[in-house]
Write a structure and sequence with these properties.
heterodimer; A: six-stranded mixed beta sheet; globular; disordered C terminus; B: alpha+beta; 2 domains; twelve-stranded mixed beta sheet; two-stranded antiparallel ribbon
């Protein structure tokens, strides 16, 4: 079942008189419950694609369906609502609120939720999540009192607190050592397997991408044909090495 | 619920940087404290000034007899005698805006004690109410004369400080006997010092006695009375001790002669006084008092509309003007100081809020990423500014109250707690929060989440 579908997504930045095309026609689909890695060197446009996937930005042209809804034309306020309900973000630099306890950091997105939860409900939900990621005893600690791995786990709990459909992780292991990275990635796999949360990992590190079930390579604003050969569309490319992948990626039109 | 949460989030954000929040709000704290303290001290001083000016006689009205004129020639104020003690009683009874009234009979003559003599600028024959009219209650020594002394025309008097100094050389005059134009008066009291009045006249150069005593014993012999049978009061037989032992008995009800009755069909005025002094209940009631007294006297004196008043009623317009302009000036001066300090405080808040928005760009980006809409961000930062200002306002109110309390305690300045000042301070600090917090908040809400997240 398709959760994300992009068709002919283009994004061009206009810097004065020079047009800078960053995405040059990307079409892809990501199924529900998928663990996908978005790979590419820096400058390949993967961050821009991630912003569009995360509804932070809207494409210059093209269509984007999220959970069956066309969202490339939504207003800023509608997109904010969508982000709150459907999407969880994990950032490379954690982006926790400084001098704020882990619990309050996790509770923060709930205060923007349209469903008006009471303070107690919010607290309970955040506590449960922190418990699940193994930080039950660190709830009142501030980010500066937590290790990098713990901080990132708090960030994951924050991303999950609104029960999103998609978890977007932008270089989640970029600031962590290899051991912690491994732990974290296993946590992503665990979340994906047990909760069925769709996860998109954006990374430049093949070691990280290896943990995904499907890898999409991006180069120069286009999707590279490569090791993601499974074709959801009938009559398209043949079977590839990642046969268990449910996603589909095809090269865009230049 | 939502606003409560916004408020809580704002408090939490401010708590993350307590020191800076405290310093930011210091401008508002000082501003509001200054306003409150100034308003309270100002209100106190204003009340004190009003009281002083009232003591100077701002609420007083002076009722004088009218002017006689003959063939277009005016004889000047007081040339007719139309006021009676009964007018004074009627005014007290019927005019609600008049607090008190006292008839005054004036004399100017020599006062002798021992081998010293002095001519006081005012010798007033009056009633005990005079001191209340002049806000002069409370004597330095002794007591004042009573209504009984007025009825009996007792020869007692109360002296001002100047006369005491001139005649008694530091001794207590109470119980001593002095002579006013050869009529002996016993001194029973000494007035408190009142100093010079606005025209520079020494108000302590005064001798007060029952008006009956002054009128019948001191001036009675010399001042002929128009309506009364002057023949009776003027000495008809030669008596060299006339001044000391008046031969004419004091007669409150002289029987008019047949000629007089034929001449004046009106009831005879038995006696008259030179002036009546009135005190209005308050400065604002002066116009009402003037109207009431005028109506009453026209009625009592049987004056029909075309005819002019046979009396003059004077109020202290000059003084009341001083009074109101002092208050107005004081208020506007304080308002200026208040506004300036609050604007300075507001600019401080705006400054720090702008810094805060820049510093928390990443946080704003994050909040937007997890679903905060631009209005949410705007509301949050606006709430922070308003909370900051309100806390500052509250602290400022306490500080201002404290400051004015200390001022009363240490400097003994009069202070008046002012509820409007507190209400205004709260209102002003909240609106300063909104006005000066709006621009930074608007700026925050306009941030692009992608840019903001990437901001270093």
């Amino acid at each position: 079942m398709t959760l994300i579908e992009l068709r002919e997504i283009r994004k061009t930045y206009y810097l004065g008189e020079v047009d800078l095309p960053v995405l040059r026609g990307i079409s892809l689909t990501i199924g529900r419950g998928e663990l996908t890695a978005l790979m590419g060197v820096s400058g390949s446009g993967k961050s821009t694609l991630m912003n569009i996937l995360g509804c932070l930005d809207h494409p210059t042209s093209g269509q984007y369906w999220l959970d069956g809804k066309e969202i490339s034309t939504l207003s800023a306020n509608q997109r904010a609502l969508l982000r709150n309900r459907m999407i969880g973000f994990v950032f490379q630099n954690f982006n926790l609120l400084p001098r704020t306890s882990a619990l309050e950091n996790v509770m923060m997105p709930l205060s923007y939720a349209p469903a008006d939860l009471s303070e107690r409900q919010m607290r309970r939900r955040a506590t449960e999540l922190l418990d699940r990621i193994g930080l039950a005893d660190r709830m009142d600690h501030q980010p500066s009192q937590l290790s990098g791995g713990q901080q990132q786990r708090v960030a994951i709990a924050r991303a999950l607190v609104n029960h999103p459909q998609v978890l977007l992780a932008d270089e989640p292991t970029g600031n962590l050592d290899s051991h912690t990275s491994e732990e974290l990635l296993r946590m992503f796999q665990e979340l994906n397997r047990s909760e069925g949360i769709t996860i998109v990992l954006v990374t430049h590190d093949p070691g990280v991408a290896r943990h995904a079930r499907q890898i999409i390579h991006i180069r120069d604003g286009l999707i590279e044909d490569g090791d993601t050969a499974f074709a959801a569309e009938p009559g398209a490319a043949g079977p590839g090495p990642a046969a268990d992948s449910a996603g589909r990626a095809d090269g865009g039109v230049a | 619920m939502r606003s409560y949460r916004t408020f809580k989030t704002a408090l939490r954000a401010l708590r993350r940087n307590v020191m800076r929040a405290a310093l930011t709000t210091l401008g508002i704290v000082i501003g509001v404290a200054a306003v409150i303290a100034m308003m309270e001290i100002g209100a106190g001083s204003s009340a004190a000034i009003q009281k002083t000016i009232t003591n100077m006689g701002a609420n007083n009205l002076m009722l004088m007899p009218g002017t006689a004129a003959s063939g277009g020639i005016s004889f000047g104020g007081g040339s007719t005698t139309t006021l009676t003690p009964q007018d004074c009683d009627a005014i007290l009874r019927d005019c609600s805006a008049v607090r008190n009234a006292a008839p005054v009979v004036r004399a100017r003559t020599q006062v002798v004690y021992g081998n010293r003599n002095w001519v006081p600028s005012s010798i007033y024959g009056t009633t005990p109410a005079f001191l209340d009219v002049r806000d002069w209650t409370g004597l330095a020594e002794g007591e004042t004369f009573a209504d009984r002394d007025v009825r009996n025309a007792n020869r007692v008097c109360v002296l001002g400080q100047t006369i005491v100094r001139e005649l008694f050389e530091g001794q207590s005059p109470v119980g001593k006997v002095l002579r006013v134009k050869n009529v002996s008066f016993r001194v029973i009291g000494v007035l408190r010092s009142k100093g010079a009045n606005m025209m520079g006249m020494d108000q302590d150069d005064i001798l007060l006695a029952p008006w009956t005593a002054i009128k019948y014993r001191v001036t009675g012999a010399s001042l002929a009375n128009v309506n009364q049978s002057s023949a009776e009061t003027s000495p008809s037989s030669v008596n060299s001790l006339n001044q000391l032992y008046p031969n004419a008995q004091l007669d409150f009800y002289p029987i008019p002669s047949a000629v007089q009755q034929a001449d004046t069909p009106m009831p005879v005025r038995f006696t008259n006084v030179d002036q009546i002094w009135l005190a209005a209940r308050s400065t604002s009631e002066i116009p009402l008092a003037v109207q009431q007294v005028t109506n009453l006297l026209r009625e009592r004196h049987r004056i029909r509309p075309p005819a002019l008043d046979d009396f003059n009623l004077r109020d202290m317009t000059e003084m009341t003007k001083v009074l109101s302009s002092t208050t107005a000036l004081m208020t506007s001066l304080l308002l200026c100081v208040a506004l300036i300090s609050l604007v300075v405080g507001g600019v401080g808040i705006m400054n720090i809020m702008l810094v805060s928005v820049t510093e928390r760009t990443r946080e704003i980006g994050l909040r937007m990423a997890v679903g905060a809409r631009p209005p949410d961000v705007l509301r949050q930062f606006l709430a922070e500014a308003v909370v900051l200002c309100l806390i500052g306002g509250a602290v400022g109110i306490l500080l201002g109250r404290g400051a004015s309390y200390v001022v009363t305690l240490v400097l003994h300045w009069p202070v008046q707690a002012s509820l409007p000042a507190v209400a205004a301070a709260v209102l002003v600090s909240a609106s300063i929060g909104i006005i000066f917090g709006y621009y930074p908040a608007w700026k925050a809400s306009r941030l692009d989440p992608i840019e903001a997240l990437r901001y270093e």
